[in-house]
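Supplementary Text 2. Reproducibility record for the structural model of the 188-residue chain.

All settings were left at their defaults, and a single model was retained for analysis rather than an ensemble. We include the record here because the model underlies the residue-level annotations in Supplementary Table 4.
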Amino acid sequence: MAGQAYIKQTWADGLDAQGLPIVIRGTEPTDNGVLVYPNLSGGTVWFRPSYSPLTKLLYIPAREVGGIYFKREAEFKIGTMFGGGGEDELPLEEGWGAIRALDAVTGRRKWEFRLNSPATAGILSTAGGLFFSGADEGNFFALEATTGKPLWEFQTGSSVHANPVSFLLDGHQCIAIAADRVLYVFSL
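Retained model, structure tokens:
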């Protein structure tokens, strides 16, 4: 079993024989707080990664954000979110994101396309050697799948938190992305 961090992480020192993380001493919450990467939202959340059999790369929307964790009493209230303790997220301006291309066999990073904010959208890779994703600042973009070279960008005017989709319409490949309450469709 193998595993490799693709984001900054400070709470585990690899995996044991069962594939479970080996927790580093001193990273559990304290009365004064302890800084841990990534924060509770994780290195990637529900945003869809994508694998390309063409490039043999796995494309990950990465989030580089830490949090400070406190040992606190927490009151459970029925019908409300219960986190079980205390987290103070670092200011988002201290966090950033990236689209990372990882070798699907070794987990090693091949390239990175840096984002200003933590990644918030999924990735769509195509058989044409392109992939599409979006950013919190409203950019919807296409990158070259082998190198990560930016090829095209469109400003939606709103944060992109969706997964791009591809479909065929009247013989043309189309790519669609939702931003806020608008669906944008582009014909390739």
